[in-house]
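Q: I'm writing up a methods section and want to include an example of the input and output format. Could you take the sequence below and give the corresponding predicted structure tokens, formatted cleanly so I can copy it straight into the document?
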Amino acid sequence: MRQLPRFSRSAPQRAAQALFACLFGIYLLTSSGHNYAIDEELMFEVTENLVLHGGFALNAGSAAEPAQYSQYGPGQSIAALPLYGLGRALARMFPTQTYAFLTRAVVGWFNPLITAAVAALLYQAVCMLGYRHRVGLATALLYGLGTMAWPHSKTFFAEPLTALLLFASFVILLRLRHALAASAPQLWLVAISGLLAGLAPSVKVQTGVALPVLALYATLAAFGTPAWSWRRGIVKASVWSAGAGLGLGLLALYQFVLFGSVLQTGYGSSVWSDFNAPFWEGFNGQLWSSGRGIIWYAPPLLLLPAGLWLFRSRDPHVALLCLLMALSHLLLYAKWVAWDGAGAWGPRFLNTVLPFMVLPLAAFLETLRGWRTPGRTSLLLAVVLLTVPVQVAGLTINMNAFFSATRSAETSYYRIADSAIVGHLRFATRQLRTLYNLHVAPNSVVLRDGFDYSEGRPAQVPRWTLPAATIAVRAQSFVAAVTLALDSCAVQPGPAQVTLEVGQQPLVVSHQPCPPRSYHLLVPSKSNTVRLGATAWEPSAVGIQRDGRLGVLLRHVSGDAAGRALVVQGELVPIPPMPAGQSSLRRWTSDHRLGHWDFWWWYLAHSPLSTELQVLLGGLWLTVGLGAIAWGVRQRF
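A: Here is the clean output for your methods example:
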């Protein structure tokens, strides 16, 4: 192992801070503001109960039943307490029906902060290993913007925090290699490194498999340095183990108090029965299956074999650490019944060791000399180009929308058509086409707003209107003829009264279309909207299982302009207002029929908040996100 160069703190630390700020801002602007899975919801509920009831029990507010605890460790729930407090304070300033959304949205800032911190540490690690600044920056950006770390920053999953704790433990050990030439090692930093690693299982207990690997590196890292001695090596390993033991001891105390045994986790005594998946199915599936292979959800890892080969000659101990860290989780989860991540974007569990898998790419990037190395440069460009559609797919569409629409026993992990990446791109294409049809497509009659879901799918009609509805007419001729067939006979308790306006001109006032009646309207190109009003009635009030208030039944709509038929456009399932309850909220954001774009600003626009409050909240969010990016850019890396 070659001698490490002297490491100057100031410049790399300033660049790391700038990198952290920029990535945090990007993650914040592309965050979703909601939870995706029951795993996240359970950790969130523990955080909430710690604040509201001062305990870890999920049913802490009820004394009538035995306490129930989350199967997940307490680490992330505790770490998220400041953000929950901020979200709760913010939610109190807005209507109560948005409380569930706002508290989860602000707690959703957690993984943007964590993932940006991992990328900043990755940059510092590359610089500590003696690579150029640009190589460190490129490596960190490949991790932060080119892998599944970015889509997972939108979640409240526990893997990003475990990645931060394990990688921070390694970075401290790496930093200490520069201090071993001094007369005495900084043992307090060694203890902190061990403590960080020991705390990782309190977030996700399975990360305990990585601790022996880090302990081995803590022992081997000092070999070959001027100050190495067996005594110092043993002392260093002992101090690191003591720090790790403290972190594990805190978890053991938590488990003893809650479950009656230091070895009993929230998973219960039957956890090992779930390690029953065929080994090669889980092993190969996590690596290269088109459905869940990490090389497709993190395309820069296609360069990992070359990176490890080049990296081993520069620093064999770190290369061995990266390899063993990846294998520790890959082998563990290969037998896990849900090795695929259980409804997540890519092989979720490997996200814990993802920074260790990206680190060796620095050795590959170091060899690039532009077009003087055409083969390697072209390979990198091809990987970057592959990354773009993958990230677009992962960021724009809710992962649950794909799984709820496509989950079946016939789904294959090796059929490209069944890949979530392909499915998300298909969803995005369909939604873009819908937006075009609704807002741009010429020669159209558009059911713009005020309509319930279609009952003639895939046809646009018949469908009920809401008490007020708007139809847009886009025709290239001077005037268009529009025909509406309305039916109010099924309205309870009696036929509805309807009104029709073209532009601002009333044409039909208080008419009952019972029996059903067709209305023929001429719509000038300058007054291209038809407004339809109807007496409101509530189906639930007369025993019909249907939410909301309805107007009149639209049985037929058609249009003609200059002898050319106009195409009827509309959303088959219009987006209903954001619900108030957390379970309903998760179903609402996951409904693939609604065509959601998986960003906080999209959901905010469909919230029950007034336009003024939406602008206020959106402005606050944008200020933080754009402000972080602006501050980072000003640091000039």
